[in-house]
Write a structure and sequence with these properties.
Mean pLDDT: 90
Number of helices: 2
Radius of gyration: 11 Å
Number of strands: 3
Distance between the termini: 32 Å
Low-confidence stretches: none
Order of helices and strands: EEEHH
Length: 70
Amino acid sequence: QGVDQGCFIKDEAIYLKMGDRDEEVIKTKELALRGKHNWENAQAAVIAALCAGATMKSIVSVLKSFRSEE
């Protein structure tokens, strides 16, 4: 399901909608953390990191490698 602005899941990928453009950020299977609840957390992290000035390249790199502490 799309959104007016922000992140959403479509076709097993996280997308970012800014303006009139939908950009695929990362495939959910590429996320280091598994589970749909982590897809939601990843969407929030994408938005927060962008607001803080991070590049999309660095955001994707972290999403691919981030592991939770157990």
